[in-house]
Amino acid sequence: MSSTANQPEQAGDKFSSLSQKIPSIFFSVPFLIALNLLTLGGFITYVILNHQQEPSQVLAAVPHTSSVLNTRKIPSLTPEPSRTPFYFTIPTSTPTASPTFNPSPTPTPTAAPTLPARANITGIVGHRQSMPLSCEARSAVDWAAYFGKSINEYTFFNGIPLHGNPDKGFVGNVYGSWGQIPPNAYGVHAKPIAQRLREFGLQAKHVRDMTWRELKTEIAAGRPVIVWVVGHVGQGTPVSYTASGGAVTTVAKFEHTVVAIGYTEDKIVILDGAKTYTKYKGEFLKSWGVLENQAVIWID
Fold it and tell me: Looking at the 3D structure of the chain, how many domains does it have?
């Protein structure tokens, strides 16, 4: 009896003990996490299965009519024509032809007129100078007479300004000794002489650095030329002279003027006062060059 009675009691105790443990299990943290994971997994499985079944349900509900079948694309055995390939072409700019520049024709230089081998001017008459240093005035009035203008030597000379610079007037006393340089008695250069001739209505021009060819051109044209030389077309030495006011000019001892009236291939014809003579070209050019090839010419 005692053993039988104890068995139900033990069973009841076990159930009572188990009932007490169950609430503690349900409310433990690991159990709650596991329960949540199972719930989430079941929801995801439901969504997936429900999504996959929807198309079949829709198709089952729609009757199999011809219009519905026509909406379904039935593959055709006729091959579709291949599409023409499309090429993307980048347009290239057509190069513009560069303009052709035709160079202007080179102007043909005008040939210098051929000068005669020799020339001589007749009709000009020279005279001896009236004063020791009046050679410039004497040459000028003889030159003027050739062009039809008669002028007295004294009258001509008295109109030349006196100046310490021979490029601007007569330097010194006209009765002084020949062969000196400024500021002593000397003479006058081409510019004041040309200016004085113009005062008488003559078309006179002074030049410097005149060439041999230019001189021959004047003579060949029948126009005598007054030239500045040393002595009677002899040798000399240029001297740089600073006049009052600071102007610098070239002077030479025995400064003198003559008139060139003719030439040949290697000589020149000189009218020196009342005398006429010839000098070799080289000798003349050296003497003329001392005073920088000064001259007085006729201009049309």
Answer: 2
